[in-house]
Amino acid sequence: MRPRLEARARHFAGLGYATATLELPGAGVRPPIPQLDGARAELLSAISAGDRPGDDVVDRLVLPLVERAVPEWRALIDAVLALPEVGGPVAISGGVIALGVRLAATEPRVVAAGLFAGSVVPRSIIDEARRVTIPLHVLLQWDDHGNDRQMALDLFDAFGSAEKTLQANMGGHTGVPPHAGEDAARFFVRHLGRRTDHP
């Protein structure tokens, strides 16, 4: 994922935006979280067998991750906005969609979000989505067999935003076409303004 994340960050930096990301709790070089690893193994086993993961497995994997990650993201926003060369507004892009929903619903500094419907979603997060009212650009890979397309559509329908766009493209999880990134960039420029006059 790193090359794709770096490419996106460099693209947005080229538009004049400060960009930052965090490794998810329990991922990469961060200390493992055994209960999340167990739930992840169950989820992958169900998907490999062609089954829909049970709600209990999805909840045990995603909700603790969201609970741990959202405070870290708030602290990251604090740290980035404290830099003298960086100002608002703030937008979020990509990542675990349940984390994006929680952050968009609870962090008033976030004014727009580009979300990727490419991860499993607890039903309680769909309820939280009703509180999201900021402009949204949601990307859905139509043939992403590891994820529940109908759940992604239900989540999109639940968002309370007056401005929300769903962009669906053919292809699997990593088959996002280049023009989808360009569309997302136009969305952010529309809501954040162009910042190319900044270093």
Short summary:
With 199 residues, the protein is an alpha/beta fold. The protein is built from 7 helices and 4 strands.
Characteristics of this structure?
199 residues; alpha/beta; Rossmann fold; 4-stranded parallel sheet; 7 helices; 12% strand
Q: Your description of this structure?
A:
The longest helix has 27 residues. Helices cover 49% and strands 12% of the residues. The two termini are 27 Å apart. Strands 1-2-3-4 form a four-stranded parallel β-sheet, sandwiched between helices. The protein has a single domain, classed as Alpha/Beta hydrolase fold, catalytic domain (Rossmann fold). It is of the alpha/beta class and 199 residues long. The mean pLDDT is 87.
CATH superfamily: Alpha/Beta hydrolase fold, catalytic domain
> Which sequence of SSEs, written as H and E, runs from N to C?
HHHEHEHEHEH
Poorly predicted parts: none
Structure summary, number of beta strands = 4
Question: What is the CATH T-level topology?
Answer: Rossmann fold
Going across the biggest sheet, name each strand in turn: 1-2-3-4
Global morphology = globular
pLDDT average, as an integer?
Answer: 87
From the N-terminal CA to the C-terminal CA, the straight-line distance is: 27 Å
The structure class reads: alpha/beta
Radius of gyration (CA) equals: 17 Å
Helix content: 40-55%
CATH architecture: 3-Layer(aba) Sandwich
Give the domain tally: 1
Query: In what range is the share of β-strand residues?
Result: 5-15%
The profile of the biggest β sheet is:
4 strands, parallel
Number of helices, counting only DSSP H or I runs of 4 residues or more: 7
Query: What's the CATH class, please?
Result: Alpha Beta
